[in-house]
Amino acid sequence: MATKINPIEKHKLRKLISELKKKExxxxxxxxxxxxxxxxxxxxxxxxxxxxxTASNIKSDQTRKNVQDALxxxxxxxxxxxxxxxxxxxxFCGAIPQNGPGSEKMEIYVVVPPEPLNLNxxxxxxxxxxxxxxxxxxxxxxxxxxxxxxxxxxxxLLEGDNIKVLSTYTSGIPGKHRAGGQSARxxxxxxxxxxxxYFDRIARHVxxxxxxxxxxxxxxxxxxxxxxxxxxxxxxxxxxxxxxxxKIIEVIDTNYAGEEGLREIVNKASDVLKNVRxxxxxxxxxxxxxxxxxxxxxxxxxxxxxxxxxxxxxIDKLMIIEDFEYYKVILNCEVCGYSDTKYVKIEEVHGIAGxxxxxxxxxxxxxxxxxxxxxxxxxxxxxxxFDIVLISSKTEYGVIFKQFGGIAAILRYALxx
Length: 417
Ligand SMILES: [Zn+2]
Hints:
Bound molecules: zinc ion
Number of domains: 3
Strand content: 25-35%
Low-confidence stretches: none
Structural class: alpha+beta
Number of helices: 13
Order of helices and strands: HEHHEEEHEEEHHEHHEHEHEEEHEHEHE
Oligomer: single chain
CATH class of the largest domain: Alpha Beta
Mean pLDDT: 88
Radius of gyration: 27 Å
């Protein structure tokens, strides 16, 4: 089972990602390499060797040298591994100008993703492709999985694209055919009792695991699967908590139960899951539009009004478009210490940085800290006790939502002006 990194390490990784985003190559010469979990590094290295000889066709002397130097550096660093770690590996390497043209220095960053990242990717570009790594930091919707037949059962979670097995069970229930010399009625009664106990045991574990407060909060739904009728009998007879019953969204026929069955459920349910997500988001956007027309004091939309009320404790649910482009940027003057916070799109940051300080008119403004608004809100979410829902940007309702700024909040109580 892959290891999860803790919140502090996640924070560090967020910082690293935002620094990597700022780095630009002089040409198309920055390498991003993603290696899937448990891949043999010797295979990766022979691939990189091919890239090295392909790079000899690059026309610009400077770019060719930088790309090839970077490839050598990556290969050198990878030699420490036999196979990639169980979460995979991301490597970023290239010549970064330190202080204008001509000051390039070779930099390399090797990162183990916070959760398994099954991606095989090599890119050479004028910037680093950190977006895939960034996605692993996003909080994902979670689905509970129950796979059961008369012999075995398993509980699991689907987080993003990742299946996590929570526990597996065997029933110990005897087969339908009794041993010689046993009375048929007595055998049948014992078998029924065993089934009953088995259902009870699984239901108890379902309740214990899925009602865990941290998980329950994020649980979007539960999928149940298994071959034959057992799963239906289980749902009918077992003592599953009503809060969890409400979350059952689909019962699916599979060939296997147990751990193998969990994977089958997910494969067969992908359309269902996509729909669940869309239906959930669409309902929220519909609610938002209803409030705009009928009770505008119950909502806020647009970045500024939300930032103004962020710390009021009034926000209940925050909706934000998944490709929201704004960043919080803290600038300061190295001469007089003047400091300013701006909320801008990433491409505007470069326009502000390096301008003359408005206070002393002597120093220049430097970026001291920058964080995407989505990350910033996720970091504040627990402290301020609101819920965040990322809205898909390419759906019909996502397009409508963007016209309202792509960020909105449903409030706990009406705003009074
Ligand atoms: Zn100044």
